[in-house]
Amino acid sequence: MSQTVDRALSILPLLAEGPADLGRVADRLGVHKSTALRLLRTLHEHGLVYRQSDQRYRLGARLFALAQEAVENLDIREIAHPHLVRLNEQRGHTVHLAVYAENEVLHLDKVESRYPVRMYSRIGKPVALTVAAVAKVCLADLPEGERRALAEKLDYPRYTSRSTPDAAAFLRELAQVREQGWATDLGGHEESVNCVAAPVRGADGRVVAAMSVSAPNVVATADELLALLPLVRRTADAISGEYSGRTPTTSPV
């Protein structure tokens, strides 16, 4: 039975390459055409493959519907939370998870610092788009035209002397974030608070969320926080792997 299931599942990535006839499916599986036909008929009955008028088979609509339903029912916060807690336990700093929705980046989850000095961020509250590290990670993933249009209509408050001054500077920074795969806010929103962030990606490689570690200077200097970047990125990769169904290649610990 397990061999039959394995063979049936092996048909799906083949058809993902494009429509294939019975002979090609049988050759790929290394089985007789009658065996391949039985497997294809079973998959067809469940809507996972579809037989075209030219007698070739392609992936069925039911497969796409199941994939879409699975994605819609994934709760990124539920998946990420244990990873955020683990990172917080290891380093003690405030850890955030944020998502981009309708031209805002919102904090979706937060694990508080174990130190007396706390962050004023709240779950559900929008972040400062032009300076927050999680916002830069989310916005850097937007298509260039959308990214430029958004940057040009934003205001650029001067929270501190390190705040992003205008759209041109913001676009340059987003391009750098997109290339390097991480972002920082080193006193751009609050003079005494630093933050490093990394992307959480879905199965298609697109950014679905951003996670960050933040700390005031009295707890950790900017250099000390930047030293945690590899750990932050490994944690984000671990969340990405679980969210997208991939087995992580390395441990975030």
UniProtKB/TrEMBL annotation:
Keywords: DNA-binding, Transcription, Transcription regulation. Transmembrane segments: none annotated. Residues 62-245 form the IclR-ED domain. It comes from the Bacteria. Residues 2-61 form the HTH iclR-type domain. This is IclR family transcriptional regulator.
